[in-house]
């Protein structure tokens, strides 16, 4: 898959899981510096919203949209991941008046496991993954142009369909 930032071709590292496959376990850190993994979400439908940089307009729009939509649904866990620092994530939440937990992938390990790491920029490709309660991937969207938004409606409908 080709991925671009304002038309410039970028190299993505890793291999993306396929729909219907069990996804690899991952490890990201929360605001308390605790390591969280996919195992922490077992038994729940999990929507993973990945943003390249929370301090940009499109990433902020994506994060707010999924936070609002998923908070209105029962039985769906939301994980938002970026490579931003803990302070950047906390400052963004405080500045936007949003109470949510964000996770960081500072070493791009999640990104490489899910085939969305962009080492030259030290960011992750904008993407959405939905994992069912057993750990199987039921939906994915990796947005090919960094400045484009994901298809929110399709992602939410896919999550609702497996509840």
From TrEMBL:
The keyword tRNA-binding does not apply. Gene3D superfamilies: Glutaredoxin. Keywords: Antioxidant, Disulfide bond, Oxidoreductase, Peroxidase, Redox-active center. Residues 17-163 form the Thioredoxin domain. GO terms for molecular function: thioredoxin peroxidase activity. Transmembrane segments: none annotated. InterPro entries: AhpC/TSA, Thioredoxin-like_sf, Thioredoxin_domain, TPX, Tpx_Peroxidase_subfamily. This is Thiol peroxidase (Atypical 2-Cys peroxiredoxin). It comes from Carnobacterium iners. The lineage of its organism: Bacteria, Bacillati, Bacillota, Bacilli, Lactobacillales.
């Amino acid at each position: 898959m080709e991925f671009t930032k304002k038309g410039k071709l970028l190299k993505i590292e890793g291999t993306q899981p396929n729909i219907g496959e069990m996804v690899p376990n991952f490890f990201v850190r929360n605001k308390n510096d605790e390591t969280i993994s996919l195992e922490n979400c077992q038994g729940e439908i999990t929507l993973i919203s990945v943003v390249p940089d929370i301090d940009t307009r499109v990433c902020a729009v994506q994060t707010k949209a999924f936070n609002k939509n998923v908070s209105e649904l029962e039985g769906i866990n939301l994980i938002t991941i970026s490579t931003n620092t803990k302070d950047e994530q906390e400052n963004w939440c405080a500045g936007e008046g949003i109470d949510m937990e964000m996770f960081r992938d500072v070493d791009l390990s999640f990104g490489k496991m899910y085939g969305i790491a962009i080492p030259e920029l030290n960011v992750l490709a904008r993407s959405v993954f939905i994992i069912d309660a057993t750990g199987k991937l039921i939906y994915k969207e990796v947005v090919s142009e960094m400045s484009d938004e994901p298809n929110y409606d399709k992602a939410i409908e896919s999550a609702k369909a497996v509840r």
